[in-house]
Amino acid sequence: DTGVSQDPRHKITKRGQNVTFRCDPISEHNRLYWYRQTLGQGPEFLTYFQNEAQLEKSRLLSDRFSAERPKGSFSTLEIQRTEQGDSAMYLCASSLPSVPYEQYFGPGTRLTVT
Amino acid sequence: DQQVKQNSPSLSVQEGRISILNCDYTNSMFDYFLWYKKYPAEGPTFLISISSIKDKNEDGRFTVFLNKSAKHLSLHIVPSQPGDSAVYFCAGQGAQKLVFGQGTRLTINP
After folding, report:
1. Closest-CA residue of chain A to B105
2. B49 contacts on A by Cβ (under 8 Å)
3. DSSP characters over B49-60
4. Which of A1, A12, A63, A89 would give a disulfide with A108, using CB separation of 3.0 to 4.6 Å?
5. Residue B69: which residues within 8 A CB-CB, separation 6 or more?
């Protein structure tokens, strides 16, 4: 199966700790997106990459959040000094640039900050 | 600023009947509209899309209707099957990103 994969699937951390999530997109997709979903809401856009270039960041992405895609393949999302409000499902998606609206999502990483 | 709204948090439909899920939007700049389906513990799965210049798109049991003057779209599922029970999200695509509604939980009753 060559779908979008995310690791870890679940992460429990204490407030103030740093966490890092990984996303591996579909291999031929050069666009990669990060979204965050909280309970009862739809996913909210955080940032996206075309190849290794980060082209847009949402105002939701505070200074404690950083995303990278160093070689244009997998991506990491790091949250520093986690807060309880960071608890959410973090979703990664990928697409072809010719069809940006057809985004294929991974299973997500569920973050719980205690 | 809720650009995409799904006003029905839940919908219950009998198996074999038609399911109609509704969505309203405020952003006239969306290029495409999409419907995603989500099961628990999985990411959203792309179902069907429609260009902003079309008013209907059909794919098997799924049909999406777009009414631009009313800024409204709907997803019709005919006939509804038990496996269709999930949370459905509509989304608008503009400036490369998707803007999602809050979701509607569809339950298909046998």
Report:
1. A40
2. 101-102
3. EEETT-SEEEET
4. A89
5. none
